[in-house]
Amino acid sequence: MNDSRLRPRLPSPLQAVADERFARHGVQLLLKRDDLIHPDLPGNKWRKLALNLEAAAGRPVLTFGGAYSNHLRATAAAGRILGFPTIGVVRGDELAGRPLNPSLARCAADGMRLVFVDRGTYRAKDDPAVLAELLRDAPPGTYTVPEGGSNALAVRGCVELGRELAGAGADVAAVACGTGGTLAGLAAGLGPGRRALGVPVLKGGFLGSTVAALQETAFGGRIGDWSLDERFHCGGYARTTPELDAFAQDFETRHGLAIERLYVAKMLQGLLVLTEEGAFPSGTRLAAVITGSGDGSNVRAVTAEGDQSAVSSR
Fold first, then answer.
1. Cβ distance 54 to 84 under 8 Å?
2. Residues 97-145: pLDDT tens digits?
3. CA torsion sign, 210 to 248 to 43 to 26?
4. Where does 44-149 sit in CATH, by number?
5. Which end of the chain is more exposed for a tag (fewer CB within 10 A), N or C?
């Protein structure tokens, strides 16, 4: 998207970090700082929204997310910056009437109209009848973007991420995965001889088929060398463990970079485990895509033991 009002920083910086835990295995760790693309639409949010916003062409946009969705925040921010109306369908009708959390408050401040729906309706949001009902009170011509922004346009928007990393000589590119759109595009852009690794932050084992379906829709079939490692979700979305938090704090101390817990920390911890397991040959240039900042607004993350702690949202 070439609208000068967004002023994205592209290509995003690629930062080499000296970390002996990787270096002792002959692996060079690189951080792809997609979190620096735009202050309000960081990382994969800008890449996934750019072509969708071109397609919307200034029409109102309706999209979906949970109570702490960074996708909702990015869409609301884009609406404020570019001057189009936004509607956010939020999972959880029990939230209606309650004080807004910081994430949803930011959406509202940016002009997004929030619509709270029960979880059954939210799960059925892709059903044409349910979507038609949600659009009934929306302005005519409203453009719909799926949860997380992941559709064929989003996938194509993430192809350039792979191209940037291929041009920088990365052998393996890793990204934390929620809805799979970023991985689908990243793998397509890397080209032959390089591979993409997805680290799901939700449990369930469904993401492989989702990524394959997204590539089918975007490109007509599977493209690129990609795989998933399902071991590092810490029990599911928004769940953390004391071990994950200790890892993230140590990484922050070593490298002076605030680490977002729900996505980025899980990916980095997974990459360290894989490195120690010998998954990457000596000489590998391993690029970790930093999709969100650890300096964002706080959300409530649930530890494996069931305690809650404030961590920053993707």
1. no
2. 899 999 999 999 999 999 999 999 999 999 999 999 999 999 999 999 9
3. negative
4. 3.40.50.1100
5. N
Q: Which amino acid is present at 175?
A: V
Structure tokens at 27: 């692996």
Lowest-pLDDT range, 24-33, 42-51, 126-135, 194-203? 42-51
Domains in the chain: boundaries = 14-40+151-312, 44-149
CA-based torsion, 40, 43, 44, 48: positive or negative: positive
Q: Which residue's entry shows tokens 């038609």?
A: 132
DSSP codes of every residue in 122-159:
HHTTTSHHHHHHHHTTSPTT-EE--GGG-SHHHHHHTH
Mean pLDDT of 47-69: 95
What band does 295 get if pLDDT is binned at 50, 70 and 90?
low
Could you count the other beta carbons within 10 Å of the beta carbon of residue 43? 29
Closest CA to 173 of 199, 204, 205: 199
Q: Which residue has the tokens 């992941």?
A: 150
Q: Which residue in 260, 157, 129, 176 sits closest to 214, CA to CA?
A: 157
CATH hierarchy code of domain 14-40+151-312: 3.40.50.1100
Cα separation, 122 vs 116, whole angstroms: 9
Q: pLDDT digit string (tens) for 182-192? A: 999 999 999 99
Q: Do domains 14-40+151-312 and 44-149 have the same CATH topology?
A: yes
The three-class DSSP label of residue 71 is: helix
Residue-level pLDDT at 238: 81
φ, ψ dihedrals at 269, nearest 5°: -65, -40
153 CB neighbour count, 10 Å cutoff: 23
